[in-house]
Amino acid sequence: SGGVFYERYHSLEDIYYWINKTRQDHSDMVKVILIGSSSEKRPLYVIKLSGRRDEVKRAMWLDCGIHAREWIAPAFCMWFVKYALEFYNLNTEITEMLNNMDIYVLTVMNPDGYKYTWTTDRMWRKNRSVDKDSECAGADLNRNFDANWCTKGASSNPCDPTYCGQFPESEPETQAVAQFLRSHKDTVKLYLSIHSYSQMLLFPYSCSYDEVSNHNELFDLVKEASTKIRRYYKNIYKYGPSAKTIYLAPGGSDDWAYNLGIKYSFTFELQDRGRYGFLLPPSFIPQACNEALLASKIIALHVIKKT
Ligand SMILES: NCCCCC[C@@H](C[SeH])C(=O)O
Ligand SMILES: [Zn+2]
Ligand SMILES: [Zn+2]
Q1: Does the CB atom of residue 144 touch ligand 1 within 6 A?
Q2: Are strands 30-37 and 43-49 parallel, antiparallel or unpaired?
Q3: Which of 77, 113, 144, 301 could form a disulfide with 165 if both were Cys (CB 3.0 to 4.6 A apart)?
């Protein structure tokens, strides 16, 4: 139903409308939680998906759109929500997921930046906070978390695309997510952050070359996901610990979530590998989202078994 809607990119206003319509159309499985607001005072709405059972003890977190220009990410969050609601009680994996874990989905973590890519600069990455001491705007929200903050792989120059912000959690968007996860850290067992591009399935650490305690388990998970994507969708995803697999990137949401105690923490870089890059045409949305959905299912079902 409304399939073509999910094969398009949508403006920020359309996404806010979609969030509210989804809640109205599925009031038995959907709650909308306001977790904070952006630096330009736009709301940060989290969609909470629950199966029709009583309280479950686990939850999973999925955020998209932390980086403004990575439009395939919010498209995936919307695809994921539509799929979960449409196939609950029809598809075994999604039914198993929703019967055993609530799913929190933050469709656009950086609404100001996303809006800016629709109105002004399609290649914008950061949020749109204004630093009074600089003529440049915006901090990189994926360098603003409290995990080896502003060390190698981030910049302290407000004009740089990887500007770490004035201090850890200086940005309202970072604060909102960190606050929500801190207050739900006993139930959230899986953290997924969706980005583009370069087709990679990554896990901590990216703030250092240190290996996490459950490195082998996380490595096997992303290896299995990559293998299945290659088999079913004939597409190649690299996988491994972030620092070694992509680059050093301190202050990342996944490293911070891991250190908070969410031991299953991943960053996905979706399609493509550079032919279109951030300008991935809408015709690629279905396959890019199905690849990410497959990886999400594999990881979520493992987490349910193990926690
Ligand atoms: N914790 C960061 C995981 C590795 C880097 C991910 C990319 C996504 Se565009 C980045 O934030 O530069
Ligand atoms: Zn990104
Ligand atoms: Zn990226």
Answers
A1: no
A2: antiparallel
A3: 144
Q: Whose CA is nearest to atom 5 of ligand 1?
A: 249
40 is catalytic: no
Cβ 110 under 6 angstroms from ligand 1: no
CA 229 – CA 233 distance, rounded (Å): 5
DSSP, residue by residue, 89-147: TTSHHHHHHHHH-EEEEES-S-HHHHHHHHHT-TT--S---B-TT-S-B---GGG-SSS
Which amino acid, 172?
P
Tell me, in angstroms, the distance from the centre of ligand 2 to residue 125's CA: 8
Q: Which residues hold their Cβ within 5 A of ligand 3, which is an ion? A: 195, 269
Residues in the chain: 307
Tell me: the pLDDT tens digits for 52-107? 777 788 999 999 999 999 999 999 999 999 999 999 999 999 999 999 999 999 99
C-alpha torsion 175→188→65→237, nearest 10: 140
Residue 55, pLDDT score: 77
The active-site residue, picked from 70, 171, 269, 291, is: 269
| Residue nearest atom 12 in ligand 1 by C-alpha distance | 249
For residue 243, which atom of ligand 1 is closest to its CA? 4
Provide the whole-model pTM: 0.98
CA–CA dist 199, 210 (Å, integer) = 23
Please write the tens of the pLDDT for every residue from 291-301: 999 999 999 99
User: What is the ipTM score, two decimals?
Assistant: 0.98
